[in-house]
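thread from #wetlab-drylab

HS: before we spend reagent money on co-crystallization trials with NAP, can we at least see a predicted complex? here's what I'd submit
DV: go for it
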Amino acid sequence: MSAHTQTAAPALQLSPIVAGAWRMADWNFDVGQRLHWIEQALELGIDSFDHADIYGDYRVESLFGEALAAAPGLRERIRIVSKCGIKLTSAQRPEHRIKSYDSSAAHVRASVENSLRALRTDRLDLLLIHRPDLLMDADALAHCFEQLKAEGKVLHVGVSNHTPSQLALLNARHRLATHQIELSPLHLAPLDDGSLDQCQDLAMRPMIWSPLGGGRLFDEGDAHASQMRAALTAVGARHGEASVATMAYAWLLRHPSRPWPITGSGRVQGLRDAVAALAIRLSAQDWYEIWQAAAQREVA
Ligand code: NAP
């Protein structure tokens, strides 16, 4: 058996672009508008939705669940990702004295139960540990994952924002399906900190958060962002005048780890910008032209 076969991750399936719900509470959508956003995403081929227990101060999962409840059958057409492990200080969680991380089985299980209730579903397609808990007991967490899967409450598990060694520690005990990390032309670290190398090594497709730098790419007052927009526009001119956002997605999608970018847009046009990138294949020179503007230097 080859090393590649031994380390192949379980078959997690997500749509090529994932829609993120982090900012949903800020959109001030009524339930009909939330449903419209979900249905428009589906029409564009986006069937996977990214959540966390803490989004919108612990409110987003309920907002989304309300929309699902308004459209019977919709749950069967979508995949739901959620995360746990961060404890925010919040009026919703008065028992949290300080902000902290918790990957104990008790917390993970309680959080999953809460997420299922809020989202009005019986299962999460994917559960992620949101941030690396310095007190993580890898054996205990792996056992908790096994139990949640055996109960059918969680179909796949993974991590987010972990170092390669933290991921390896847990992955040796329970096969992880993905690593959700930040990557964009304004955040290059995973390209050479070992994270994406590890994803390729484990045949684990990464999920990418803040693909547009959380919107910073469009900040008129940000000099680096302006240079990025110029570079993305120049390369986009050779790809059917693709927009800055589309070119940023095309740059991410070119990586051989086959990432799943998560769009954070509440606008249908924002979803379209992301999906349009699926039709573009950058040459290595195009990719490096964008990298050069991102890194603010030429290759050595
Ligand atoms: P993003 O797509 O980089 O940023 C979204 C922001 O950019 C929105 O405010 C959006 O506004 C704005 N934007 C998009 N296109 C624009 C344009 N053409 N002009 C001006 N502004 C534009 O992604 P993100 O929201 O930061 O993150 C995406 C998802 O990743 C989140 O929803 C969440 O699910 C996940 N996430 C995970 C973690 C983690 O730790 N695992 C951390 C952060 C986020 P509009 O709505 O107006 O388009």
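DV: The first strand starts at residue 18 and ends at 20.
HS: ok that's useful, forwarding to the group
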